[in-house]
């Protein structure tokens, strides 16, 4: 609990919502419908949880207009309850800057620039030729290795490695000769990079992560990838080098994209799917098969092999 409290009227004004019930009702925290108690505000955005609406202990619930008629408590009525919840959640953030007192416990190379409004956590390394713009947060133990540019209002979560060497080697009779990675990593504004992500800088051209991109934890983006605006990628995904991806790309967990491909705008990739060819038509692509008993899987795999595409 944050220690903050707001009237229902205060919260409704933040999300341009209509009030149901007492506008002076005091809200002290946020909770799920099934785990709420008096003083909490909750929200309903997924029909799966509608069954909890009639008997929740929440003092108020954020709902859409369709579900407002079933409210048993006070509420805030909006078009998009999940987006409204996101806005209100920021009001209950107890530690918006968790690093107060550790402001000097990081390293910035002399060739790099960091805006004075940037928040940097302990044990952060900012290497040569890096630039971090206004109101960005670099969380603890992250590294900007070299030639990294991060735009405004972005968030880099702990243990991210940005601008690392791409996987580039020239085979020869004695093994491999390393190819020096001379490009940059350009990260736009309003980007969020999850914990433990690795994004390589370019070999010659740049790696580009465009405005509004959101990466979950443990995502790897290889050198020279271009990832389009407002794309969102779930945990443990990987994109191989020199692939260009359009806007609004969405990718489920444990998925991958091979290198040197071109993918158009507005593509959705289901969990555990491997993209092996360029995609020229927007849509939803999936290659996952649900878990089965081993004997059933063996039968299914034979059918798949024999099936003519």
TrEMBL record:
Its EC number is 2.3.1.-. Residues 25-91 form the UDP-3-O-[3-hydroxymyristoyl] glucosamine N-acyltransferase non-repeat region domain. Keywords: Acyltransferase, Lipid A biosynthesis, Lipid biosynthesis, Lipid metabolism, Repeat, Transferase. CDD domains: LbH_LpxD. Pfam families: GMPPB_C, Hexapep, LpxD. The keyword RNA-binding does not apply. It is an enzyme of class 2 (transferase). GO terms for molecular function: N-acyltransferase activity. Signal peptide: none annotated. Residues 105-163 form the Mannose-1-phosphate guanyltransferase C-terminal domain. NCBIfam families: lipid_A_lpxD (TIGR01853), PRK00892.1 (NF002060). This is UDP-3-O-[3-hydroxymyristoyl] glucosamine N-acyltransferase. It comes from SAR86 cluster bacterium SAR86E.
């Amino acid at each position: 609990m944050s220690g903050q409290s707001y009237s229902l009227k205060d919260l409704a004004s933040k999300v341009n919502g209509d009030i149901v019930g007492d506008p002076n009702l005091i809200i002290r925290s946020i909770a799920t419908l099934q785990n709420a108690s008096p003083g909490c505000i909750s929200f309903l955005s997924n029909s799966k949880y509608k069954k909890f609406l009639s008997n929740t202990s929440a003092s108020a619930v954020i709902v859409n207009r369709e579900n407002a008629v079933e409210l048993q408590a006070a509420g805030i009525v909006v078009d998009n309850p999940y987006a409204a919840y996101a806005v209100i959640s920021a009001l209950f953030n107890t530690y918006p800057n968790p690093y107060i007192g550790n402001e000097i416990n990081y390293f910035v190379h002399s060739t790099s620039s960091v805006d004075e409004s940037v928040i940097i956590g302990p044990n952060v390394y900012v290497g040569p030729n890096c630039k971090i713009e206004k109101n960005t947060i670099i969380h603890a133990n992250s590294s900007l290795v070299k030639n990294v540019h991060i735009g405004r209002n972005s968030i880099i979560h702990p243990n991210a490695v940005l601008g690392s060497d791409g996987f580039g080697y020239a085979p020869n009779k004695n093994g491999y000769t390393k190819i020096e990675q001379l490009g940059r990593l350009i990260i736009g504004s309003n980007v969020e990079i999850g914990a433990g992500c690795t994004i390589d800088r370019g070999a010659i051209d740049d790696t580009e992560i465009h405005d509004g991109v959101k990466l979950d934890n443990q995502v790897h983006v290889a050198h020279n990838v271009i990832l389009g605006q407002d794309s969102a990628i779930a945990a443990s995904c990987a994109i191989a080098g020199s692939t260009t991806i359009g806007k609004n790309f969405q990718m489920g967990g444990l998925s991958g994209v091979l290198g040197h491909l071109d993918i158009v705008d507005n593509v959705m990739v289901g969990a555990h799917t491997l993209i092996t060819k360029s995609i020229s038509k927007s849509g939803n692509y999936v290659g996952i098969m649900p878990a089965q008993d081993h004997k059933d899987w063996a039968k299914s795999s034979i059918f798949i092999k024999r099936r003519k595409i």
